[in-house]
Amino acid sequence: xxxxxxxxxxxxxxxxxxxxxxxxxxxxxxxxxxxxxxxxxxxxxxxxxxxxxxxxxxxxxxxxxxxxxxxxxxxxxxxxxxxxxxxxxxxxxxxxxxxxxxxxxxxxxxxxxxxxxxxxxxxxxxxxxxxxxxxxxxxxxxxxxxxxxxxxxxxxxxxxxxxxxxxxxxxxxxxxxxxxxxxxxxxxxxxxxxxxxxxxxxxxxxxxxxxxxxxxxxxxxxxxxxxxxxxxxxxxxxxxxxxxxxxxxxxxxxxxxxxxxxx
Length: 263
Ligand SMILES: Nc1ncnc2c1ncn2[C@@H]1O[C@H](COP(=O)(O)OP(=O)(O)OP(=O)(O)O)[C@@H](O)[C@H]1O
What we know:
This protein has 263 residues and is of the alpha/beta class. The chain has a domain at 1-73 and 197-263: 3-Layer(aba) Sandwich (Rossmann fold). Helices cover 34% and strands 23% of the residues. Strand 9 and strand 10 form a beta hairpin. It starts with a strand and ends with a helix. The protein binds adenosine-5'-triphosphate. Adenosine-5'-triphosphate (ATP) is lined by residues 14-15, 21, 23, 43-49, 219. InterPro entries: AAA+_ATPase, ABC_transporter-like_ATP-bd, ABC_transporter-like_CS, ABC_transporter_ATP-bind, P-loop_NTPase.
């Protein structure tokens, strides 16, 4: 069975052939529908490049990229995305920022005018789900960094994407806020069952959230390991202080240290 996100033997070079940067070479990865996948690896190994390929922002020189059994050749509309910098539009309220994808992605775009009330209710219920009830009419600059990132997750999810691509979304937050947002993410995934690919440098984050952690080599990046994480869901945050959890974090840390040393 093919995965929901399927990369096969992908090679990607930035710039010209002679003086370009080979970012990925021989990278294969298969993420099942509904699965929460995390991608970790040495700095600069090509994690963000992988995200750009899977969302169709760039195309590989060789190999194939498929999402939902379709070859990706342009931006993937069934994907929601969130990055480290929430980049909310400062002249729009939080609610208006959250609703932005509805103005772009079909079929919502055509329906937005006639079904505006229902869409507003949907955006507000997402804000409530992430703990931002009542903040919809505030501007982004009136929110803390953690609140902006919560709103950013709502914006990534408002058009009910089947696939959520997260590139270091919690990287800039303090440790407490980060753990809070891990739990928000856990609950959103538990409720909505979308497929997730999360790129992170934080191995605790990867092990806490993911069903499977993919480990990349140093650049040019390819997958060197897949670690299943079989803790029952929903996972309490205290799990992250248990020995069995830390054993997996240590194991992954060792693999990344080896990958760095081999570079
Ligand atoms: N637009 C670009 N043009 C040229 N080279 C690029 C471009 N984007 C990335 N690269 C190079 O490709 C390689 C992989 O970059 P990428 O951002 O995918 O790595 P990463 O694993 O996400 O990095 P980090 O861990 O630091 O976030 C790096 O050597 C980077 O310098």
